[in-house]
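thought: fold this chain, then report.
action: predict
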Amino acid sequence: MTTDAEKTRQLHDLVSEGDVVMLTTAADGMLSRPITVAEAGEDHLAFLVSGATAWVQTLAEALPEAGAVVGVTFADPGRTNYVSLRARAHVNGDRSRVERLWTPLAQAFFSGPEDPDVCVLEVQVEAGEWWDGPSTGVGRLVALAASALTGKDMVGESGDVDLTQRSA
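observation:
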């Protein structure tokens, strides 16, 4: 029997630095874009972004104190792991924060950490869910065949993202 504790997972166990997630913003008509995670904490994600882009400017102007509501999704189809998060986004232009998050990968998008356009998109996660399915191709085929024969849903695991460890 699966307990509630087994049905929750920590955010940083589900999404890691370097993962590419899809970030969905509502201000531009529910558009999603791929973005690379620069930092994954217990209850937040951070990304290096260009403050010169229209979508980042819209986020910076929308609800500056409360933050704009965004969606973050992550899929690892090879391992059949999926994550969906609801969060609040804030644009942070602090140069020392940019420098702390800078990696050689960021060089592909910006001229360097001193680039005036680069800023940090801070995403404070409010809620989330995860799903896991059978992790091998054979396991997926067996689960699919069993589902077709029995009429029962495919076996998989799901649960909530544990945000109870939030920093004070």
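thought: worth noting. Residues 69 and 88 are 5 Å apart (CA to CA).
final: tokens above.
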